[in-house]
Each structure stands twice: as structure tokens, then as C-alpha cells.
Design brief:
The protein has ten helices and 19 strands. The chain is of the alpha+beta class.
């Protein structure tokens, strides 16, 4: 396993320290989960400190190259020991109260609240190792098997909540350590809401059902969306579904390292706009997936961030007709130096149950 902290150390100047407290960032560098602890990184040293509840487990899990020490909280002594003159913090994850607390501790140490550390860690996490990708794949296979079982129980009269609970139960019983997020299962007119909440609405013949869900394996998330029909579909439903499917195919065909996130978004958006549904595609075309369900890079129409080999991103165009129905289809793609590897195997052709 690569030691991710080395890549961060290479970006630090002499006298500069990096304070890592955000749980997902701590896990990324230390391979250890806890509700308490922090990582201090300088060019020369990396030190993980946690309290007595976690010290034994941390000593067993944290990779060699990172010192592990029992301590309750950050104090000025450890900053002096590591010869830190300027401390970069995770600005986007630091509250005003936490910043004031640091200012009391860091006497004589400059606190760097710029985006340096957020950007540096975000860029490292966005490029996945093969080991990370394999965890995402394992999570995705669990989600796909859960979908297969859930499809067998969908029929008129079943509620949205029952569909969501079926997906959740199946993922957890099949080995998911957690759910990636609160499962979305919406039907009929409710499917026009991209992030609708499953309720007591009963499925009816002629409905579209949109299911957005994912599993977690060793901290890594999966994310997929499938839209299925019950009983029959109208000509307009089929047209919208085929348009979304064509938009997703165009995006997956054009995704590659070196294009911007805005260009990636346009691959799908242009197809939908050409079909006359542009104003009904109301979110970005995708996002990064990893230790968090939404993480960089974000494939939106205004993002000039460049996609890189190693990124795992979703391709999830959608069309949502208010008060009628919606369609979203979502896969995850791993960007390679020569193209992509689609991590999602579930069928996408329109399924009428």
C-alpha cells in the first residue's frame, strides 16, 4: 500500500506543518477510523495522536512511517517539537470556534487558513490507487446484487419506502459496512424530484421508479442510479428514457483524462439540449466518488478543473418533467491513461417490470 503521507510531505515547505483532523482525510492518510485524533505532517515527520480509547488499535493499523502517540489534544509542545512555524489547516472543515481554539494553542505559530491544504489533500484523494478502486468495485457489486433482488419485489401496491428498505436491507445483508447515503426510491410524479425522499406513495402501473443508492466497503462508497418502469410506458416516457441513455453513453464515450469537468458535463448536456429537454436537466453531470460520496472532481458546466487518470467519477445525466416523471441513469467510471473502465455492470436498457 502506498504511503499517501509522503505525497503531502513533498508539498510542504521547511517549517510548514499540516494539521489533518477531518475524519475522511485522517483515514486516507492513516488507514485508521476513530472519532478522535489528529495527524501532524511536516517535511520530515508525520505524527498521529489519539486518546487512550484508540491507541492500541491505532498502533496496529497506522502504517509504518507515521508515528503513533497517545495524547488527548493538540498542544503547543508538539508544534515546538516538530519545529512548526506555519500551520496549514483544513479551512473548509474548520469552524470559527475551532479556529479560535487553535489560535489560543498556536502561540507564535502562523495559522494558514488559505485553501492550500484542502486543495493538496483533495487532489491526492481524487487520484485513486488500484487498491482503492477495487474497494469501490466491491461496494458496487453489492449494490448491483441488491438491486437484482429488489427488482423482484417491485409491483403495483408496493410503496417507495418499501423499495428503499429492500435495497438497504439487501446491501447490508450482502456485506456492505454502511450505506453510501440515504437511499432514494421515488415513483410516478415523485420521480421528477432528483433527490426525492421515499414515502408512502404506492407504485402504480405506468410509473417510472428511480432508485439512487450505494454501498460502503472499507470506507469506500459506490453510487448508481437506475430507472425502471412498471407495466407499460408511454411514447414520451420512452423518448425521455432513450434521451438520457444516449446522453450517458455520449458522456462515457467521451470521458478521458485531460478534458475539463465542464467539457465532461457538456458531453451529456449537449445531447439532452439537442433533444429539447435542456431546461429539465437540473444538476451537474457527475462527481468524484471515494471515501466520500461526493468529492472532487465535480463535473459541472462551469468547472475548469481538469480530469486526471486515476479519478473515479459518476456519469449521471437526468431529465425531470415537473409533476410528471423523471429519469436518471448513473454509472461510475475509472479514468485510465487511455480511456475509462466502467465500474458499473448493471443493465441500462429500459426495463418494464
Amino acid at each position: 500500500m502506498r504511503l499517501n503521507v509522503h505525497a503531502l510531505q513533498a508539498q510542504l515547505a521547511s517549517g510548514q506543518g499540516a494539521l489533518i483532523r477531518y475524519p475522511e482525510n485522517r483515514r486516507y492518510f492513516t488507514n485508521f477510523i476513530s472519532s478522535a485524533g489528529f495527524l501532524l505532517v511536516t517535511r520530515e515527520r508525520a505524527l498521529f495522536q489519539t486518546d487512550s480509547r484508540y491507541i492500541e488499535a491505532a498502533q496496529a493499523a497506522v502504517p509504518a512511517g507515521i508515528e503513533v502517540r497517545e495524547a488527548g489534544a493538540l498542544d503547543a509542545k508538539v508544534l515546538q517539537e516538530l519545529k512548526i512555524e506555519r500551520l496549514s489547516i483544513e479551512a473548509s472543515h474548520t469552524t470559527i470556534a475551532a479556529l479560535h481554539g487553535l489560535e489560543k494553542i498556536c502561540t507564535g505559530v502562523e495559522i494558514d487558513t488559505r485553501d492550500f491544504l484542502d486543495d493538496a489533500v483533495g487532489a491526492l484523494r481524487a487520484v485513486k490507487s488500484r487498491d482503492e478502486v477495487e474497494k469501490i468495485i466491491r461496494a458496487q457489486r453489492i449494490a448491483e446484487r441488491a438491486l437484482e433482488k429488489t427488482l423482484a419485489m417491485i409491483r403495483p401496491g408496493v410503496t417507495e419506502r418499501e423499495i428503499a428498505l429492500s435495497l438497504d436491507f439487501n446491501m447490508l445483508s450482502m456485506g456492505a459496512q454502511a450505506l453510501s447515503f440515504e437511499t432514494i426510491a421515488v415513483s410516478g410524479e415523485n420521480s421528477s424530484r432528483p433527490h426525492g425522499v421515499p414515502g408512502d406513495r404506492q407504485v402504480r402501473a405506468g410509473d417510472f421508479i428511480t432508485m439512487d443508492f450505494g454501498a460502503v466497503v472499507e470506507g469506500y462508497h459506490s453510487d448508481m442510479t437506475r430507472t425502471v418502469a412498471v407495466g407499460s410506458v408511454t411514447a414520451e416516457q420512452r423518448k425521455v428514457y432513450d434521451t438520457v441513455l444516449a446522453a450517458q453513453a455520449a458522456m462515457l464515450d467521451g470521458l478521458r483524462a485531460g478534458i475539463t469537468c465542464a467539457q465532461a458535463d457538456a458531453l451529456a448536456r449537449d445531447v439532452i439540449e439537442h433533444a429539447g429537454y435542456g431546461k429539465f436537466f437540473r444538476h451537474s453531470a457527475g462527481h468524484g466518488v471515494g471515501l466520500e460520496i461526493h468529492e472532487p472532481p465535480f463535473e459541472g458546466p462551469r468547472s475548469q478543473e481538469v480530469l486526471r487518470a486515476g479519478n473515479v467519477v459518476t456519469a449521471e445525466p437526468g431529465i425531470y418533467l415537473p409533476g410528471q416523471f423523471g429519469v436518471r441513469i448513473e454509472d461510475m467510471a475509472y479514468l485510465t491513461p487511455t480511456g475509462i473502465e466502467n465500474l458499473t455492470q448493471a443493465p441500462k436498457e429500459l426495463l418494464v417490470l
